[in-house]
């Protein structure tokens, strides 16, 4: 566990020092570069016992390396309908037959895509990176390689969803589905996520979740007759086992907090309705995970958007949100000669200062709560060890 705790402490300390205490664009770049390099190093140096799917992907890489292009286009290729992942293996195999280099490339793709996205669109990138690690998304990338590459690509489509630009959104979804076909479900999500968040939509989502939960087994048997036939095997039936309530706790708490603070998030940007909807979907899917583990694989796609939503939440309650609204209304005292106007301006300044102080307290107390909850969730994920993240060992040993 020590190496993962080192990573979370590194992100926390550097984030507070470089991005909170000494805010600057340069410091943000330094933070993202250092934390990314550390995570890539840990991922690429891990032994084949770290990550439950490691050996499965190592075997596939060997098949591509030995079979070449002929294997890629043959029926023997289990990932032929996911050409992006097949081609990635093929390109790396042309350069080297070392699986550790392939894992380095995968880690570089997932972490770098995440860091660049946070730098480009997130109001507080270091918080997004803290969520990326503490909520288990980084840990997932050590095992669920295909899906995590696909999700890291999908996250770039969220901005186009917010801007209602369907064509670039669709192209990104198609690219992500080339690494994991399940991402195709995000095509209808583009339209559903535009629905305003209110009690009517929340009741509709809840009713749909209940209906799907009630019909899960009939749907499962119907689908596995035609597609995903492997899921009808004993291995596939594993996905139909339910998880415990702790699995759903943090996604549900996250969705609830975002719904409670919805007015602040929407006041910052009305288009954040998209992010709020995605948070609701993740919360419902993780509740359904208590019935069947299969729903977690879909819930993970939506929950990962928390690396974008939670920084937006903090930006909406921070000092800058008050200053942006209030400062234009505060008059310049030097230009006032009338005593009554000066008195009124002084009162406005005092009111603004009180609001700023209040938002400072709210921001830092909320930040402390996020760090506390995130660290607990991080420890719980490691102790549960469902995807063999511990004990961490390097292949050098």
Task: Provide a descriptive summary of the structure in words.
By secondary structure, this protein is an all-alpha fold. The protein contains 21 helices and no strands. The chain has helices at residues 2-21, 25-45, 54-72, 83-95, 99-121, 125-134, 137-140, 145-154, 158-162, 166-177, 186-192, 199-214, 216-226, 234-237, 245-260, 262-268, 273-289, 294-303, 306-317, 319-326, 339-384. It starts with a helix and ends in a 13-residue tail after the last helix. The model has no long low-confidence stretch (mean pLDDT 89).
Structural class by helix and strand composition: mainly alpha
Secondary-structure element series: HHHHHHHHHHHHHHHHHHHHH
Percentage of β-strand residues: under 5%
Provide the helix percentage.
Answer: over 70%
Task: Determine Rg (CA atoms, Å).
Answer: 23 Å
Shape: globular
What is the strand tally?
A: 0
- The span between the termini is 17 Å
| Total helical elements | 21
The low-confidence runs, each spanning 5 or more residues with pLDDT under 50, are none
For the largest beta-sheet, the strand count, sense and barrel status come to:
none
Whole-number mean pLDDT: 89
What is the compact description of this entry?
The chain has helices at 2-21, 25-45, 54-72, 83-95, 99-121, 125-134, 137-140, 145-154, 158-162, 166-177, 186-192, 199-214, 216-226, 234-237, 245-260, 262-268, 273-289, 294-303, 306-317, 319-326, 339-384. It is mainly α.
Give the helix/strand layout:
Layout: H1 2-21, H2 25-45, H3 54-72, H4 83-95, H5 99-121, H6 125-134, H7 137-140, H8 145-154, H9 158-162, H10 166-177, H11 186-192, H12 199-214, H13 216-226, H14 234-237, H15 245-260, H16 262-268, H17 273-289, H18 294-303, H19 306-317, H20 319-326, H21 339-384
Helix pairs in contact: 1-2, 1-6, 2-5, 3-4, 5-6, 5-8, 6-19, 6-21, 8-10, 12-17, 15-17, 16-19, 17-18, 20-21
């Amino acid at each position: 566990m020590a190496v993962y705790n080192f990573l979370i402490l590194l992100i926390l300390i550097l984030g507070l020092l470089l991005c909170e205490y000494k805010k600057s664009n340069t410091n943000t770049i330094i933070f993202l570069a250092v934390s990314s390099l550390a995570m890539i190093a840990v991922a690429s140096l891990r032994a084949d016992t770290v990550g439950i799917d490691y050996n499965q992907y190592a075997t596939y890489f060997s098949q591509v390396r030995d079979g070449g292009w002929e294997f890629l286009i043959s029926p023997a290729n289990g990932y032929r309908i996911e050409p992006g992942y097949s081609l990635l293996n093929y390109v790396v195999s042309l350069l080297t037959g070392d699986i550790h280099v392939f894992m380095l490339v995968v880690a570089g793709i997932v972490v770098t895509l995440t860091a660049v996205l946070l730098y480009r669109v997130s109001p507080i990138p270091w918080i997004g990176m803290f969520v990326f690690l503490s909520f288990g998304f980084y840990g997932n990338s050590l095992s669920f390689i295909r899906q995590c590459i696909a999700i890291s690509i999908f996250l770039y489509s969220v901005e186009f969803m917010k801007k209602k630009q369907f064509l670039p959104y669709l192209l990104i979804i198609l690219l992500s589905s080339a690494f994991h076909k399940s991402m195709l479900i995000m095509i209808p999500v583009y339209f559903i996520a535009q629905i305003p968040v209110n009690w009517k939509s929340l009741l509709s989502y809840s009713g749909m979740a209940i209906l799907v939960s009630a019909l899960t087994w009939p749907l499962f048997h119907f689908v596995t007759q035609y597609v995903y036939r492997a899921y009808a095997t004993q291995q596939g039936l594993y996905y139909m086992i339910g998880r415990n309530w702790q699995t759903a706790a943090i996604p549900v708490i996250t969705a609830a907090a975002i719904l409670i603070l919805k007015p602040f998030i929407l006041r910052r940007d009305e288009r954040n309705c998209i992010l709020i909807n995605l948070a609701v979907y993740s919360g419902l899917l993780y509740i359904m995970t208590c019935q069947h583990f299969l729903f977690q694989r879909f819930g993970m796609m939506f929950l990962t958007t928390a690396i974008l939503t939670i920084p937006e939440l903090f930006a909406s309650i921070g000092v800058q949100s008050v200053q942006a609204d209030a400062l234009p209304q505060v008059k310049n005292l030097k230009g006032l000669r009338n005593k009554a106007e000066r008195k009124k301006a002084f009162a406005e300044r005092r009111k603004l200062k009180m609001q700023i102080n209040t938002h400072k307290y709210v921001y830092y107390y909320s930040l402390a709560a996020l760090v506390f909850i995130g660290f607990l969730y991080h420890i719980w994920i490691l102790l549960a060890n469902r995807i063999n993240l511990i004990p961490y060992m390097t292949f050098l040993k």
